[in-house]
Amino acid sequence: MNIAVLLSGGVDSSVALRLLQAQGHTVTAFYLKIWLEDELSFLGDCPWQEDLSYVQAVCEQAGVELKIVSFQKEYHETVIAYAIEEIKKGLTPNPDIMCNSMIKFGAFYDTFAQQYDKIATGHYAGLTEIDGTFYLKQTPDAIKDQTYFLARLSQAQLSKALFPLGDLTKQEVRQLAQTFNLPNKDRKDSQGLCFLGKIKFSDFIKEHIGTRQGPLVEFETGKVLAYHEGFWFYTIGQRKGIKLSHGPWYVVAKDPFTNTVFISKEYHDETKQRDTFTVTALNWFSGNMPDKKELLVKMRHGPQLYQASLTQENQQLVVRLAQRDQGIATGQFAVFYDGQLCLGCGVIEHVLS
């Protein structure tokens, strides 16, 4: 096949490229430039320069053509705008999910899909077709599995997608990097949002939203313990950054209308744990809600899966977990699974209990 491979400069996408090349496919490498260099230059050096140098070295070693494409404007108008608006509302956005659906398999798909048989990335995700419908499938590496970040893709996007690492663990990918003697074989995995590099997310938010003093309130007593610079700097379950003694302290709730952040030392207490929420903006890969109403659900990236029951109540999808979770936050994505099969996702709209 004629395949477009999206490279980031990391080990995963580089191994994906070499695997496809070894299988005899014609591959063209693409580096998507989304770094907002003009807007963020005051915060530090451009991280994409180091990434691109590794991409160039990998392509030169493999003898593969590299094309550099800028989607800075599209990224700012979609992913960044979405993240900022969600944070202003007191919600918990997931820019990585939006980047996959709106940039890597969105803007790039719209521009280049007709020229290539498939668009490949280094995501840890499987892909399968059942009765003409494409579904994601979890990988053998539960910790690295990235189906959560891909659950907003459409059928058209999934039909063009290719994930060469779908049957591999991170350890196996690292071993392949050594076997291929990749220029970036010893490079550490990147952390955080791709467009920020080493810049702190809090600094980025401060630049876009600013600061406004509000109270840090003890959840159980209503006592004001200190003051913060804005509820938008805090997420439910957060522990770091609450610089108070006699802790540890955790964020258990936020009130965007009064700019209040509620904290507690008893984060893992039963009273802080909830098990029911509603979901909106649903994206079922099949196009319809599954017949099976007992599914597994993830509410954040990672190996944690909850047994859940799904019901339609007052034209809303209500999800009830079999066990309680203290970290459910509005704006988060809930991703649904039937065993290893990923069926789609939705956005948590209200936490009911």
Beta content comes to 25-35%
Strand line-up in the sheet with most strands: 12-15-14-13-16-17
Q: Assign a percent range to the helix content.
A: 25-40%
Looking at this structure, what is the CATH superfamily of the largest domain? HUPs
Unreliable spans are none
Mean pLDDT: 90
Q: First CA to last CA: what distance?
A: 50 Å
Write down the secondary-structure element order.
Answer: EHEHHEHHEEEHHEHHEEEEEEEEEE
What CATH calls the topology of the largest domain is Rossmann fold
Rg value: 21 Å
Number of helices: 9
Structure in words:
- The chain has 353 residues and is an alpha/beta fold.
- The protein folds into three domains: 2-122 and 164-179, 3-Layer(aba) Sandwich (Rossmann fold), CATH 3.40.50; 211-264, Roll (SH3 type barrels); 273-351, Elongation Factor Tu (Ef-tu), domain 3, CATH 2.40.30.
- It has nine helices and 17 strands.
- The chain has helices at residues 11-22, 37-40, 48-62, 72-88, 95-112, 147-150, 155-160, 170-179, 201-209; strands spanning 2-6, 26-33, 66-70, 118-120, 126-130, 133-137, 161-162, 214-218, 224-228, 250-255, 260-264, 274-284, 294-298, 306-313, 316-325, 333-338, 341-351.
- The strands form three sheets. A six-stranded antiparallel beta barrel has the order 12-15-14-13-16-17. It has a five-stranded parallel beta sheet with strand order 3-2-1-4-7, with helices on both faces. Strands 9-8-11-10 form a four-stranded mixed beta sheet, with no helix packed on it.
- β1 (2-6), α1 and β2 form a beta-alpha-beta unit.
- α1 (11-22) crosses α8 and α4 (72-88) runs antiparallel to α5.
- The longest helix has 18 residues, at 95-112.
- The relative contact order is 0.13.
- The mean pLDDT is 90.
